[in-house]
Amino acid sequence: MIQQMGYWVAWNDKYTVVNVGHMIEEWQRNPTYYVEDYEGKPAVGVDGLRRRLRAKGYDLIEENGRHKIAKL
Asked: Which residues are CB-contacts of 50 (< 8 A; sequence separation ≥ 6)?
């Protein structure tokens, strides 16, 4: 449809997407996923994840080999 109108791309002027990966509730629901993701980013690493969380008032905790994200 966009090409039929003579355009190459379309741009929505309203933000219509909810990216759950940007919400702390999602990080708390599945912290292991995010820890493993940051382990695969050597330039940032898990320490970078901790810094990012602490900057927003949260911390990464490991208890009994499991990760948990808790409010400071």
From this structure: 59, 60
Decide: 50 and 59 in contact? Cβ < 8 Å. yes
The CA-atom distances, in angstroms, between 42 and each of 8, 33, 35, 47 are: 37, 16, 12, 10
pTM of the model: 0.70
For residue 53, give both structure tokens. 């969380």
> In degrees, to the nearest 5, what angle opens at C-alpha 71 toward C-alphas 70 and 72?
115
* Strand stretches in the chain, DSSP E: 58-63, 66-71
pLDDT of residue 21: 77
For residue 43, give the 3-state DSSP assignment.
coil
Q: Which helix (H) or strand (E) holds 27?
A: helix 24-29
